[in-house]
Write a structure and sequence with these properties.
single chain, 224 residues, alpha+beta, eight-stranded antiparallel β-sheet, five-stranded mixed β-sheet, 18% helix, globular
Length: 224
């Protein structure tokens, strides 16, 4: 009996850890659109830098623009999807979609030859020997691109990255989501037009007995 109970508890914990996070994209006085992602609470926690608090408290991850036009996100573990929808001005029980496009008017970049350009890295708390080896850290490359429809940044940047839509035409990913990794790399991509993209690579390097080395590399992609 005890063994069976432990097995059930183990399965429950595994399923809870791997549970798929629901995302809410909300607009004041218009309500929210809800999507169930393929990511776990740990994945989203790492992507958005919640340092384990979202993985622990869980809830729905809410994205919206404040009155100043700034993109905001926060975890809501108190309201149901219906209550969230009503809080932002919606009515009724909303549908929770699986997959698909979070935004119907997302810009689709054109296929063809794209030229990549990276700015000089901005460094903080990085030892000189590491600062002299930053070439290629952003992993940004020019070349012929054929994009998925709908657009997925993995066609442009490292294929193993986990991408999340932060706002209309804005995406974020990490290539090393594990908290114990020495290197943690984050990409943020903004699709400005069918021929222009901009973004930033944020790299954090954990060095024993030193402050975390931080690198920020701005980049652009332009269709030729």
């Amino acid at each position: 009996m005890k063994k069976a109970l432990m097995t059930v508890l183990g399965v429950f914990c595994l399923l809870n850890t791997q549970a798929q996070v629901t995302i809410a994209y909300c607009k004041f006085e218009q309500g929210c659109k809800f999507y169930q992602t393929q990511y776990s609470f740990k994945d989203i926690d790492n992507l958005l830098g919640y340092l384990g608090t979202f993985e622990k408290s869980k809830g729905t991850m809410v994205f919206f623009k404040n009155k100043q036009g700034q993109d905001i996100h926060y975890p809501d573990n108190k309201r149901s999807v219906k209550q969230l929808n009503e809080y932002f001005g919606g009515k009724g029980e909303p549908n929770v979609a699986k997959g698909g496009l979070p935004f119907e008017k997302a810009i689709q970049p054109k296929d063809g030859n794209w030229i990549a350009k990276t700015d000089k890295p901005i460094l903080k708390n990085c030892p000189s020997q590491l600062a002299n080896q930053t070439d290629g850290f952003a992993n940004i490359k020019s070349g012929n691109k054929v994009f998925s429809k709908p657009f997925n940044p993995s066609d442009l940047l490292p294929p193993n990255a986990k991408w999340l839509t932060l706002a209309e035409n804005t995406y974020r990913a990490t290539v090393l989501p594990e908290a114990e990794a020495a290197f943690k790399t984050f990409y943020t991509v903004n699709v400005l037009s069918p021929t222009q993209l901009s973004g930033v690579t944020d790299i954090y390097v954990n060095i024993p007995n030193q402050k975390t080395c931080e690198m920020k590399i701005n980049f652009t992609f332009t269709a030729k």
